[in-house]
Design a protein that fits this description.
Strand content of chain A: over 45%
Order of helices and strands of chain A: EEEEEEEEEEE
Mean pLDDT of chain B: 96
Shape of chain B: globular
Distance between the termini of chain A: 36 Å
Helix content of chain A: under 10%
Number of helices of chain B: 0
Radius of gyration of chain A: 13 Å
Number of helices of chain A: 0
Structural class of chain A: mainly beta
Low-confidence stretches of chain A: none
Shape of chain A: globular
Number of strands of chain B: 11
Largest sheet of chain A: 7 strands, mixed
Largest sheet of chain B: 7 strands, mixed
Largest interface: A-B, 24 and 21 residues
Oligomer: heterodimer
Order of helices and strands of chain B: EEEEEEEEEEE
Helix content of chain B: under 10%
Structural class of chain B: mainly beta
Number of strands of chain A: 11
Mean pLDDT of chain A: 97
Low-confidence stretches of chain B: none
Strand content of chain B: over 45%
């Protein structure tokens, strides 16, 4: 079964920029994996941020962007705010269903 | 405004069957994949499976032998059954609206604890 890997943790300063990545054990991540990104804050249900790599939901902040970079799916946060501190999950379609990455804990410090 | 609302037993003993249902109060029931996702305490998310209004189902291969997802179109509800649960199935279970390659609506989640 496909294994999806994310950085376990990242730290960013307020106002800074950070890129979270998502890799697949089967090779390069492509648009065919329909990458999704979700944000989860403590005690809350996850909230969808992106689908199909870079398609935003209506509630997704403009400072967030999704992309494919060097065979990985990527989530970039620019002008980071304290409220962006959260766990971020990528989700890839594998053909046999959907597979989550282990999540990245983003600390804003 | 409730959009997805689930219910079911919150505490089970090992080897019992987990049974959860989710009612959909928003939008059309057809055209989407109604999805179950879970999260063990302190751990990451796991996709369990999905069903559409035509009763086409897809399951996580690692859970497929124990899981059944069904739909009741007359009530705009979908359900999850997981047989022979163990402590490893202790998790918050989410019912989610999927489809069109997105997962846009989530319920608040419900903790199911498996313990003897």
């Amino acid at each position: 079964q496909t294994v999806v890997t994310q950085e376990p943790s990242l730290t960013v300063s307020p106002g800074g920029t950070v890129t979270l990545t998502c890799t697949s054990s089967t090779g390069a991540v492509t648009s065919g994996h329909h990458p999704n990104w979700l944000q989860q804050k403590p005690g809350q249900a996850p909230r969808a941020l992106f689908y199909n790599t870079n398609y935003k939901h209506s509630w997704t902040p403009a400072r967030f962007s999704g992309s494919l970079l060097g065979g990985q799916a990527a989530l970039t946060l620019s002008g980071v705010r304290p409220e962006d501190e959260a766990d971020y999950y990528c989700l890839l379609y594998s053909g046999a269903g959907w597979v989550f990455g282990g999540g990245t804990r983003l600390t804003v410090l | 405004q409730v959009q997805l609302q689930q219910w079911g037993a919150g505490r089970l003993r090992p080897s019992e069957t987990l049974s959860l249902s989710c009612a959909v109060y928003v939008g059309s029931f057809s055209g989407y994949y109604w999805t179950w996702i879970r999260q063990p305490p302190g751990k990451g998310l796991e996709w369990i499976g999905e069903i559409n209004h035509r009763e086409s189902v897809n399951y996580n291969p690692s859970l497929k032998s124990r899981v059944t997802i069904s739909v009741d179109k007359s009530k705009n509800q979908f359900s999850l059954k997981m047989r022979f649960v163990t402590a490893a199935d202790t998790a918050v279970y989410y019912c989610v609206r999927g489809g069109y390659w997105m997962f846009d609506l989530w319920d608040q989640g419900a903790l199911v604890t498996v313990s003897s």
